[in-house]
Write a structure and sequence with these properties.
The structure holds two protein chains of two kinds. By secondary structure, chain A is mainly β. Chain A has strands at residues 4-7, 10-13, 19-25, 31-38, 42-49, 56-57, 65-67, 73-78, 87-94, 105-106, 110-114. Chain A has no helices and eleven strands. In chain A, strands 2, 4, 5, 6, 9, 10 and 11 form a seven-stranded mixed sheet that branches. By secondary structure, chain B is an all-beta fold. The chains are: A mainly beta, B mainly beta.
């Protein structure tokens, strides 16, 4: 039982390049989330999903796209990376069919630098 | 949308002292309030949570109190130890849907031996 796994752990991009971050969870959770963490800003929600095939915008969605084709996977895409997207990205998942319910379990994070 | 204010941003205490971190929220529909601890370079992990039908919850050295009327909740750590040093985040559910959270900006707690 690995919990929430993120790949890759580190990545350096040039401005304008694209990439996809993968999040996989093995807990059969309905809900999945993508956050970004910047110094002094806490965790800000980018996009989230309440189930397979569904996605919704969070607090800071601009410049990102997501897909949830399978219940266990949640992908975050950057179509044209910008230096402002340099950040640490965390994926999380949770369930309403616990116990426990509502607790968000986080992946180890992806450190992305855009030059 | 929901706004969560967290204070202080940094807190330094001596080992054995107590530490208190306070958060206020704006959405009166919020009903789930978790606290996460993030050690340097690690992922955030839940340490305690409270729901709106409860005023206080304790788990060994940590406790959380909730005042729904005033829209604030606090984390209390007693008998602090160096391993308590970390960044602590409060969060509040958005619009009554417990699955979506707004996080505070975090408090860096340093426990000096």
């Amino acid at each position: 039982n690995a919990g929430v796994t993120q790949t890759p752990k580190f990545r350096v991009l040039k401005t304008g390049q694209s990439m996809t971050l993968l999040c996989a969870q093995d807990m059969n959770h309905e809900y999945m989330y993508w956050y970004r963490q910047d110094p002094g800003m806490g965790l800000r929600l980018i996009h989230y999903s309440v189930g397979e095939g569904t996605t919704a915008k969070g607090e800071v969605p601009d410049g990102y796209n997501v897909s949830r084709l399978k219940k266990q996977n949640f992908l975050l895409g950057l179509e044209s990376a910008a230096p402002s997207q340099t950040s640490v990205y965390f994926c999380a998942s949770s369930t309403r069919t616990g116990p426990p319910t509502d607790i968000q379990y986080f992946g180890a994070g992806t450190r992305l630098s855009v030059l | 949308g929901e706004n969560v204010e967290q204070h202080p941003s940094t807190l330094s205490v001596q080992e054995g002292d107590s530490a208190v971190i306070k958060c206020t929220y704006s959405d009166s529909a919020s009903n789930y309030f978790p606290w996460y601890k993030q050690e340097l370079g690690k992922r955030p992990q839940l340490i305690i949570d409270i729901r709106s039908n409860v005023g206080e919850k304790k788990d060994q050295r940590i406790a959380v109190t909730l005042n729904k009327t005033a829209k604030h909740f606090s984390l209390h750590i007693t008998e602090t130890q160096p391993e308590d040093s970390a960044v602590y985040f409060c969060a509040a559910s958005i619009g009554g849907s417990n699955y979506k959270l707004t996080f505070g900006k975090g408090t860096l707690l340093t426990v000096n031996p």
